[in-house]
Inverse folding.
């Protein structure tokens, strides 16, 4: 049995904590805020889980495994937080051909979708869609609450909210002036991880707009899929409403690099820019219910996620590359494998 310290009670930290506790290890979860923390980057109504990654066979296979692990977590936590509505990705004929080839090689299902099948959504000219039935909408906040409830009831888990970690060394973390010994340490504090340790990352801020559809489309949206690669530059996406969530839209057009999460800018101009994107037919009929700025970190070189080993016992998920929620079970599997192998102990 190993002692595992998890810094950060977001999705990666909580999924890892669950896996380690189930394997019989002693787990301490530390977060500088509440647990779950509504200010964390994981906190949101919903997140996308895309299985099919066109032109990336290995990535598609990995996300198919992540999808299976999310289903296992639903069963374990006895909470429905995966909406299996699928995800549609817009593409040109050549792009769709490559997407179907990726699906074939990764052995995942995919079907063609004509724009006429999704009339409330504006497809870019010259594109149609590929439907990924394994894709889903993850009810993020519902999962976070269920995960914390399960961990709080587990005798091998200690939750320490309001506990700021100020330093990390091999086999130990410094939290509120106390040194906590651990066989394995995972730093998963979102963008704040870079303040403790890890390779260089770039911090991004992205504006989201939450909408209420017009009443005559409520029934249609209840079973609609997520849709990506739409908008003027084909960098916009949407997540459908359902199970108490709103319709959410965003785009890379309103994503910008920032130096810190604390230096907030005025979201108004960014929200107006997003609402001007050609995403929804009859957009003027939708009611803006709210806006939110989310943050994520990406590798300074590749723009993707980072899972770095800083010491023999210390791992840092210092960047998610914008897809950290859906891939969290894969990171947890990696960390648990190291714990079980006693490689870090």
């Amino acid at each position: 049995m190993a002692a595992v310290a998890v810094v950060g009670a977001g999705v990666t930290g909580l999924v890892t904590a669950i896996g380690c506790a189930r394997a019989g290890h002693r787990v301490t979860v530390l977060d500088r805020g509440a647990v779950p923390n509504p200010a964390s980057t994981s906190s949101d109504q919903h997140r996308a889980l895309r299985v099919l990654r066109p032109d990336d066979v290995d990535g598609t296979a990995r996300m198919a495994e992540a999808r299976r692990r999310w289903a296992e977590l639903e069963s374990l936590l006895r909470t429905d937080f995966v909406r299996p509505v699928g995800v549609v990705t817009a593409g040109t004929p050549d792009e769709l051909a490559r997407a179907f080839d990726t699906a074939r090689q990764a052995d995942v299902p995919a079907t063609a979708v004509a724009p006429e099948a999704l009339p409330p959504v504006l497809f870019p000219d010259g594109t149609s869609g590929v439907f990924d039935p394994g894709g889903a909408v993850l009810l993020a906040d519902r999962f976070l609450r269920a995960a914390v409830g399960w961990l709080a009831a587990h005798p091998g888990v200690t939750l320490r909210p309001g506990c700021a970690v100020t330093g990390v060394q091999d086999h130990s973390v410094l939290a509120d002036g106390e040194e906590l010994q651990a066989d394995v340490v995972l730093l998963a504090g979102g963008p704040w991880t870079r303040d403790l340790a890890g390779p260089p990352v770039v911090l991004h801020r992205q504006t989201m707009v939450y909408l209420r559809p017009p009443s005559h489309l409520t029934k249609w949206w209840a079973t609609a899929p997520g849709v990506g690669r739409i908008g003027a530059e084909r960098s916009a996406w949407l997540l459908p409403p359902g199970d108490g969530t709103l319709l959410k839209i965003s785009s890379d057009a309103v994503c910008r690099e920032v130096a810190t999460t604390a230096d907030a800018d005025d979201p108004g101009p960014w929200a107006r820019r997003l609402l001007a994107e050609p995403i929804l037919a009859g957009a003027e009929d939708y009611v803006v219910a709210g806006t939110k700025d989310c943050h994520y970190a990406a590798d300074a070189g590749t723009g993707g996620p980072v899972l770095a080993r800083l010491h023999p016992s210390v791992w840092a998920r210092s960047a998610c590359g914008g897809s950290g929620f859906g891939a969290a079970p894969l990171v947890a599997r990696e960390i648990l494998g190291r714990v079980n192998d006693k490689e870090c102990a």
About this structure: Residues 57 and 102 are 5 Å apart (CA to CA).
